[in-house]
Amino acid sequence: MAGNARKPAPVMPAPYDLIIRNGTCVLPWGIEQTSVGVRQGRIATLGVGSAAEATESIDATGLHVLPGLIDPHVHLRDAGDAASAAVESMPTGTRAAVLGGITAVFDMPNTRPPLVDAATLATKQSYAERVAWCDVGFYVGATKANIPDLASLETGRGVCAIKVFAGSSTGDLLVEDDASIEQVMRNGHRRIAFHSEDEYRLQERRSRFHCGDPYASHMEWRDEECAFLGTSRLMALARRTGRAAHILHVSTAQELEYLKDCREIATCEVLVNHLTQVAPDCYDRLGGYGVMNPPIRGEAHRQAAWAAVRDGTVDTIGSDHAPHARAAKEKPWPDCHSGLTGVQTLVPVMLDHVNAGRLSLARMVDLMCAGPARVYGVAGKGRLAAGYDADFTLVDMRRRRRIEEKWIVSPCGWTPFAGMAVTGWPVATIIRGQPVMREDEVLGAPRGRLVRFLG
What we know:
This protein has helices spanning 82-85, 90-99, 118-131, 150-153, 178-185, 199-205, 217-221, 224-241, 253-259, 272-276, 281-286, 299-311, 326-329, 346-355, 361-376, and strands spanning 16-27, 30-39, 42-46, 54-59, 64-67, 69-74, 102-107, 135-141, 159-165, 192-195, 245-247, 266-271, 316-318, 392-402, 421-431, 434-438, 441-442. By secondary structure, the chain is α/β, with parallel strands linked by helices. Strands 1, 2, 3, 4, 5, 14, 15, 16 and 17 form a nine-stranded mixed β-sheet that branches. An eight-stranded parallel β-sheet has the order 6-7-8-9-10-11-12-13. The longest helix is centred in the middle third of the chain and has 18 residues, at 224-241. The radius of gyration is 23 Å and the shape is globular.
């Protein structure tokens, strides 16, 4: 009887929800042409066979498939404030992100009201899960009043880090003195993100400048010494407390050289603006539309930023997307508001730098995927590998376009990169296996979730 028993039918693999076929994939171990299979929002397999079936298939022939790119530094402005939402909001800012090939953004706390307590965090968590087109993380702002609560707040759902404005913020978000910053560092354990300009030097030098001075006065007031003093003070406090620090938007050659000796305690970010724009040209051409904090500086600092990208000093690249209305940007200096748009243009500008030979595509992916995941402790994002979230940015490295303001969806409607011709363009954005943008068209309904963080 045993010889007549039927052999069990072979177990057929379950079909995939999505297969991205024949793309040139930027993997952690190299760049390969392969197909990627997705099930239940995660990467199931690399190297899917041609006979495999899927509910949806995307032919990526001729395209590069990147892990979903992250912009770790944005200001989405609204938290229920109508005036701020008229400039940018969670729905419009995350829509801009997916149009620009970004799958996740980390939002800064200097909104109205500021994100400094558990109640405001709960409101923003619920809001983001209803309206965001991409995944979202939140910085919680440190104040002198909420220091005892920071250890609890930093572990909240969707919180990427505590943010300290050690120079030039609004309201209660300024924490400028060493004693208070040290208290912040001793409450909690995760890496803290810093705006590191020295507030005392800023205030001491403020009287030297006057309304109507040239816009280039911005970089003279907020000079290199102001930035270096802030960063060196923070490094001393980080070493004293043993608390890891992430220095945001590093803008000077002096800081970047100094930070090479602080790798045991510090990571750092540079902005696309400091890699792309240069003073005084930016102020001559753009006026108030070139004003941001820290300021855009001269060519020597831009070259130092590129050298730091190439030698590994830099960990992340962000946009510091900070929209303002045109009327606010067109005021005379220093009354013009500081901050530039950037989340929608970050990927095209960086791809253009890749095509110009300033960095490799693999290094760009490291800075915009693995780097943010490593610095902030992101769970399940940052690389193309089995088990990770099925977030992808598909790019055409050969496509040539000109950045135009009619493409910008932020309500303010402007970009400092208007008119820039670029080579390389995002053609699709996929989040957890669901296409949310293809060829400049946003698809479906908002499906963003809160980013998961470890620790």
